[in-house]
Amino acid sequence: MRTYFTLLFLIVSTTLLTQEEAVIIFIDNSISINRASTLSGELSKVLDESSEVGFLVLGNSSQDGLPNYELHSLDEEGLQNDLNSLCLKDNQSPRPQEIVRILSELLYNEKLVAIKDNEPEQVGDIQIHFFFHISTFVQKKIVKEVVEILIADLKLIEGKTNVVIHLDYLNEKEHYNEYIDSIKLLSKNIKINSY
Prior knowledge:
The protein has helices spanning 2-18, 36-49, 79-87, 96-109, 134-139, 142-153, 174-184; strands at 22-27, 54-63, 66-73, 113-116, 119-122, 126-133, 161-168, 190-194. By secondary structure, the protein is of the alpha/beta class.
Protein backbone atom coordinates (compact mmCIF):
# COMPACT_ATOMS: atom_id res chain seq x y z
CA MET A 1 0.00 0.00 0.00
CA ARG A 2 2.85 2.33 0.85
CA THR A 3 4.36 1.71 -2.59
CA TYR A 4 1.01 2.56 -4.21
CA PHE A 5 0.83 5.96 -2.46
CA THR A 6 4.45 6.70 -3.29
CA LEU A 7 3.83 5.88 -6.95
CA LEU A 8 0.63 7.97 -7.00
CA PHE A 9 2.47 10.92 -5.41
CA LEU A 10 5.25 10.71 -8.03
CA ILE A 11 2.77 10.61 -10.91
CA VAL A 12 0.76 13.59 -9.61
CA SER A 13 3.81 15.70 -8.78
CA THR A 14 5.45 14.93 -12.15
CA THR A 15 2.24 15.91 -13.97
CA LEU A 16 2.00 19.19 -12.05
CA LEU A 17 5.64 20.04 -12.66
CA THR A 18 5.46 19.33 -16.38
CA GLN A 19 2.36 21.42 -17.02
CA GLU A 20 3.50 24.51 -18.84
CA GLU A 21 1.65 27.72 -19.44
CA ALA A 22 0.01 27.66 -22.86
CA VAL A 23 0.85 30.69 -24.99
CA ILE A 24 -1.52 32.02 -27.64
CA ILE A 25 -0.21 34.78 -29.92
CA PHE A 26 -2.72 36.64 -32.09
CA ILE A 27 -1.37 38.96 -34.79
CA ASP A 28 -3.25 41.61 -36.74
CA ASN A 29 -0.68 43.15 -39.08
CA SER A 30 -3.18 44.76 -41.42
CA ILE A 31 -1.79 48.24 -40.83
CA SER A 32 1.65 47.30 -39.50
CA ILE A 33 2.79 45.62 -42.72
CA ASN A 34 5.18 48.47 -43.53
CA ARG A 35 6.87 47.76 -40.18
CA ALA A 36 7.09 44.00 -40.68
CA SER A 37 10.69 43.77 -39.48
CA THR A 38 9.80 45.59 -36.25
CA LEU A 39 6.80 43.32 -35.71
CA SER A 40 8.97 40.28 -36.44
CA GLY A 41 11.50 41.45 -33.84
CA GLU A 42 8.80 41.83 -31.18
CA LEU A 43 7.36 38.42 -32.03
CA SER A 44 10.79 36.86 -31.81
CA LYS A 45 11.22 38.24 -28.26
CA VAL A 46 7.89 36.74 -27.19
CA LEU A 47 8.76 33.38 -28.74
CA ASP A 48 12.15 33.38 -27.02
CA GLU A 49 10.47 33.91 -23.63
CA SER A 50 7.67 31.40 -24.23
CA SER A 51 7.52 27.68 -23.80
CA GLU A 52 6.83 25.79 -26.99
CA VAL A 53 3.31 25.03 -25.81
CA GLY A 54 0.80 27.07 -27.76
CA PHE A 55 -0.04 28.68 -31.05
CA LEU A 56 0.58 31.68 -33.24
CA VAL A 57 -2.53 32.94 -35.04
CA LEU A 58 -2.16 35.28 -38.00
CA GLY A 59 -5.54 36.99 -38.24
CA ASN A 60 -7.39 37.88 -41.41
CA SER A 61 -10.93 39.03 -42.18
CA SER A 62 -13.54 36.33 -42.68
CA GLN A 63 -14.05 34.79 -46.09
CA ASP A 64 -17.52 33.67 -47.20
CA GLY A 65 -18.72 34.11 -43.63
CA LEU A 66 -16.11 31.70 -42.22
CA PRO A 67 -13.12 32.54 -40.01
CA ASN A 68 -10.02 33.07 -42.09
CA TYR A 69 -6.68 32.82 -40.31
CA GLU A 70 -3.34 31.06 -40.37
CA LEU A 71 -2.40 28.84 -37.41
CA HIS A 72 1.13 27.75 -36.42
CA SER A 73 2.18 25.63 -33.45
CA LEU A 74 4.88 27.27 -31.33
CA ASP A 75 6.93 24.07 -31.51
CA GLU A 76 6.82 24.15 -35.32
CA GLU A 77 10.29 23.69 -36.74
CA GLY A 78 11.56 26.86 -38.38
CA LEU A 79 8.86 29.15 -36.98
CA GLN A 80 11.44 31.69 -35.78
CA ASN A 81 13.00 31.74 -39.25
CA ASP A 82 9.62 32.23 -40.93
CA LEU A 83 8.57 35.26 -38.84
CA ASN A 84 9.72 37.81 -41.42
CA SER A 85 7.67 36.26 -44.22
CA LEU A 86 4.65 35.78 -41.92
CA CYS A 87 4.75 39.45 -40.94
CA LEU A 88 4.86 40.51 -44.60
CA LYS A 89 1.50 38.91 -45.39
CA ASP A 90 -0.98 41.60 -46.37
CA ASN A 91 -4.06 40.57 -44.39
CA GLN A 92 -7.28 42.44 -43.72
CA SER A 93 -8.11 43.23 -40.13
CA PRO A 94 -10.68 40.81 -38.67
CA ARG A 95 -13.69 42.17 -36.82
CA PRO A 96 -13.57 41.84 -33.02
CA GLN A 97 -16.30 39.16 -33.10
CA GLU A 98 -14.16 37.11 -35.50
CA ILE A 99 -11.16 37.34 -33.17
CA VAL A 100 -13.29 36.17 -30.24
CA ARG A 101 -14.64 33.27 -32.29
CA ILE A 102 -11.19 32.19 -33.51
CA LEU A 103 -9.62 32.29 -30.05
CA SER A 104 -12.61 30.68 -28.31
CA GLU A 105 -12.59 27.77 -30.76
CA LEU A 106 -8.83 27.39 -30.37
CA LEU A 107 -9.01 27.37 -26.56
CA TYR A 108 -11.79 24.78 -26.61
CA ASN A 109 -10.18 22.61 -29.30
CA GLU A 110 -6.87 22.54 -27.44
CA LYS A 111 -8.65 21.69 -24.18
CA LEU A 112 -7.39 24.82 -22.43
CA VAL A 113 -11.04 25.52 -21.63
CA ALA A 114 -13.52 22.68 -21.12
CA ILE A 115 -17.24 22.45 -20.41
CA LYS A 116 -18.04 21.24 -16.91
CA ASP A 117 -21.60 21.26 -15.57
CA ASN A 118 -22.66 23.22 -18.69
CA GLU A 119 -20.19 26.00 -17.88
CA PRO A 120 -16.78 26.79 -19.35
CA GLU A 121 -13.89 26.00 -17.04
CA GLN A 122 -10.26 26.99 -17.57
CA VAL A 123 -8.04 23.91 -17.45
CA GLY A 124 -4.52 25.37 -17.34
CA ASP A 125 -2.58 28.60 -17.21
CA ILE A 126 -2.89 30.69 -20.36
CA GLN A 127 -0.93 33.66 -21.62
CA ILE A 128 -2.45 35.52 -24.57
CA HIS A 129 -0.39 37.98 -26.61
CA PHE A 130 -2.16 40.34 -28.99
CA PHE A 131 -0.26 42.30 -31.64
CA PHE A 132 -2.13 45.33 -33.06
CA HIS A 133 -1.44 48.68 -34.64
CA ILE A 134 -2.47 51.38 -32.17
CA SER A 135 -5.20 52.83 -34.39
CA THR A 136 -6.84 49.41 -34.95
CA PHE A 137 -6.59 48.70 -31.24
CA VAL A 138 -8.34 51.94 -30.28
CA GLN A 139 -10.91 52.15 -33.10
CA LYS A 140 -12.05 48.54 -32.73
CA LYS A 141 -12.10 48.80 -28.91
CA ILE A 142 -10.12 45.58 -28.64
CA VAL A 143 -10.04 45.44 -24.84
CA LYS A 144 -13.82 45.86 -24.51
CA GLU A 145 -14.83 43.95 -27.66
CA VAL A 146 -12.29 41.10 -27.50
CA VAL A 147 -10.35 40.75 -24.23
CA GLU A 148 -13.21 41.39 -21.80
CA ILE A 149 -15.61 39.22 -23.81
CA LEU A 150 -13.14 36.32 -23.97
CA ILE A 151 -12.53 36.52 -20.22
CA ALA A 152 -16.26 36.70 -19.42
CA ASP A 153 -17.53 34.13 -21.97
CA LEU A 154 -14.87 31.53 -21.20
CA LYS A 155 -14.76 32.36 -17.49
CA LEU A 156 -11.01 32.80 -17.60
CA ILE A 157 -9.52 33.12 -14.13
CA GLU A 158 -7.50 36.23 -13.31
CA GLY A 159 -4.69 34.38 -11.54
CA LYS A 160 -4.38 31.80 -14.34
CA THR A 161 -4.74 34.11 -17.35
CA ASN A 162 -2.39 36.87 -18.41
CA VAL A 163 -2.98 39.13 -21.39
CA VAL A 164 -0.18 41.12 -23.00
CA ILE A 165 -1.11 43.62 -25.71
CA HIS A 166 1.74 44.66 -28.01
CA LEU A 167 1.02 47.87 -29.88
CA ASP A 168 2.74 49.14 -33.00
CA TYR A 169 2.80 52.73 -31.81
CA LEU A 170 5.36 54.70 -33.80
CA ASN A 171 3.98 58.25 -33.47
CA GLU A 172 2.67 59.04 -30.01
CA LYS A 173 -0.65 60.87 -29.76
CA GLU A 174 -2.16 62.22 -26.59
CA HIS A 175 -5.63 60.67 -27.05
CA TYR A 176 -4.03 57.24 -27.62
CA ASN A 177 -1.91 57.70 -24.48
CA GLU A 178 -5.01 58.56 -22.45
CA TYR A 179 -6.81 55.49 -23.78
CA ILE A 180 -3.86 53.22 -22.91
CA ASP A 181 -3.61 54.72 -19.42
CA SER A 182 -7.31 54.03 -18.79
CA ILE A 183 -6.82 50.36 -19.74
CA LYS A 184 -3.82 49.91 -17.46
CA LEU A 185 -6.15 50.52 -14.51
CA LEU A 186 -8.52 47.69 -15.56
CA SER A 187 -6.62 44.64 -14.39
CA LYS A 188 -3.17 43.72 -13.20
CA ASN A 189 -3.31 40.79 -15.62
CA ILE A 190 -3.63 43.00 -18.71
CA LYS A 191 -0.30 44.52 -19.71
CA ILE A 192 0.40 46.87 -22.59
CA ASN A 193 3.70 47.01 -24.42
CA SER A 194 4.33 49.64 -27.10
CA TYR A 195 7.06 49.20 -29.69
